[in-house]
Write a structure and sequence with these properties.
Elements: H1 24-36, E1 40-44, H2 48-53, E2 64-67, H3 73-86, E3 93-99, H4 101-105, H5 108-117, E4 122-127, H6 163-168, E5 174-179, H7 183-194, E6 200-205, H8 209-212, H9 219-228, E7 235-238, E8 241-244, H10 246-254, H11 261-265, H12 275-296
Parallel strand pairs: 1-2, 1-3, 3-4, 4-6, 5-6
Antiparallel strand pairs: 5-7, 7-8
């Protein structure tokens, strides 16, 4: 696995972004762009990533970017792929990138259509588990027991949508999960995705201090707790074969997966979660973990 010492020195995010302090997205995006390089075109909807890119005509991002409407990220990426092909340009990587709201909810139609056609681009969902840019509203990626500004009761009563299974059902050339707290794992997976063809789906767990309710200095810690407790599992799928990677592989081999309590207690969004939902949350995490281990044959 790559370490931070192995990563390219060139930076594609310059000083002066407008993201919140401790933003998991900005950490992940730094290493994503290092892996993809300067010949990248990113298309993105209204979201936290738009805030990171800044207000036209000024931006701290040193790659090409196109803004699109909330539900049309994959449609915009499809158009960019077609336009480059028409001009005979074949050395650029097209990337569609949106949050969980723009992916799990509003963007699923265009993404599913593009994936079914195997359109040649990378789609990235940076998942901070709510509509953070507009005020921490509930999305279908919001986990069971979390508080948001639009949950009609104090906590969400439904489990998080298993969007990875939905995308895997499209028989993609490459699907991977990663987390901003593990830059080596993230970098290697994006290098691999860059060299694949067809639709590639990348799920990036992106802790959010403002929406999750923890100190900005704890972003890396929270992401690591998510992986250590199995809430986030690091793996990749190629040709229907699932392989655990990085920290998740180490945990599977050692059998030292943590319980979810430490992860939940570190975040204000779970402060009103009743004990019965904590137990239900743990059971859901364990079921998903066992399913992944079975498929990985571990």
């Amino acid at each position: 696995m790559a370490t931070t010492l192995d990563l390219p020195g060139e930076e594609f995010i310059l000083p002066g972004t407008r993201t919140c302090a401790g933003c998991g997205l900005s950490i992940a995006y730094r290493y994503i762009l290092k892996a993809l390089g300067p010949k990248t075109i990113v298309t993105l909807p209204a979201c936290c990533l738009t805030i990171l890119h800044g207000i036209y005509p000024k931006t701290p991002i040193a790659v090409n970017a196109v803004n699109n409407t909330f539900a049309s990220t994959a449609a915009s990426a499809t158009g960019l792929v077609a336009g480059l092909k028409a001009r005979g340009i074949n050395d650029f990587t097209v990337v569609g990138m949106a949050g969980d709201g723009g992916t799990f909810d509003m963007g699923i139609q265009a993404l599913s259509g593009a994936a079914e056609r195997q359109t040649d681009f990378i789609y990235i969902c940076y998942d901070n588990e709510a509509y953070m840019n507009t005020g921490v509203q509930r999305s279908s990626a919001t986990p069971l027991g979390a508080y948001t500004t639009t949950t009609p009761v104090l906590t969400k009563q439904q489990p998080k949508k298993n969007f990875l299974k939905i995308m895997e059902a499209h028989n993609l050339s490459y699907l991977a999960t990663t987390c901003s707290s593990y830059p080596g794992d993230l970098y290697e997976k994006f290098l691999k995705a860059k060299n694949k063809k067809g639709t590639r789906f990348m799920h990036v767990a992106s802790p959010c201090p403002a929406g999750w309710g923890y100190p900005a200095s704890d972003t890396v810690k929270i992401g690591r707790l998510a992986v250590e407790s199995g809430v986030v599992i690091l793996y990749e799928v190629e040709g229907g074969e699932l392989k655990l990677t990085g920290k998740s592989l180490n945990i599977a081999r050692s059998g030292r997966k943590k319980r979810v309590n430490e992860y939940l207690e570190a975040q204000g969004r779970f402060s009103k979660m009743p004990a019965e939902l904590v137990e239900e949350f743990q059971k859901e995490v364990d079921r998903n973990w066992d399913d992944v281990l079975r498929r990985a044959k571990l």
